[in-house]
Specification:
The protein contains 6 helices and 5 strands; from the N terminus they run ββααβααββαα. The chain is of the alpha+beta class. It folds into 2 domains: 43 residues, no CATH class; 121 residues, Winged helix-like DNA-binding domain superfamily/Winged helix DNA-binding domain (Arc Repressor Mutant, subunit A), CATH 1.10.10. A 3-stranded antiparallel sheet has the order 3-5-4. A two-stranded parallel sheet has the order 1-2. Helix 2 crosses helix 3, helix 2 packs across helix 4 and helix 3 packs across helix 4.
Length: 166
């Protein structure tokens, strides 16, 4: 059973008895827990970058080199916002623009060695933070979390069609 109510009381709207705990998902509670873990993983130093700048940098690293319009589309941000964002990344030495042969107006973004290094540092810090948190769990809790990983990965990879989703 999935409960999307804000009360998360475990019952259906018609007062029926709650289903077995193993099959019950309180969506609100899950959303809050995921958001809290996400915030904790982002709480460390982000090399002076906003989450949007960091996301764009990671996108260029993962899929680059990319044209500016492709980065804007992938990040679901306006081209004018992207221009300001790329300027910051360039000024910090994390990306550089490269001309596109045969198209004098176009350029692609590539991540510099400094950009790769900062992304790797941030990933290592996040992994350490999460590993430290996992050490507080019991063996049964760790097993449950391990069993839930495929479902969480499927949710994370789902394209909901929501323009706010990344």
């Amino acid at each position: 059973m999935i409960d999307g109510s804000t009360t998360g009381n475990g019952t259906t709207g018609n007062g029926a008895a709650a289903v077995a705990e193993a099959s019950y998902i309180d969506v609100t509670r899950l959303r809050v827990a995921i958001a809290r873990v996400s915030r904790r993983l982002r709480r460390h130093e982000l090399a002076g970058l906003t989450p949007t700048q960091l996301s764009a940098l990671a996108t260029v690293e993962r899929a680059g080199p990319l044209r500016l319009g492709d980065v804007a589309a992938a990040e679901k941000i306006a081209p004018s916002t992207l221009t300001r964002l790329v300027t910051v990344l360039e000024e910090r030495g994390y990306v550089e623009r490269c001309p596109v042969p045969g198209d004098a107006r176009a350029s692609t973004l590539v991540v510099t060695a400094r950009g790769h290094a900062i992304l790797e540092r941030i990933r290592q810090e996040s992994t350490i933070l999460l590993a430290d948190s996992l050490r507080t769990l019991t063996p049964d809790q760790l097993a449950a979390l391990a069993a839930a990983l495929p479902a969480l990965e499927q949710i994370a990879d789902a394209d909901t069609g929501d323009p706010r989703a990344r």
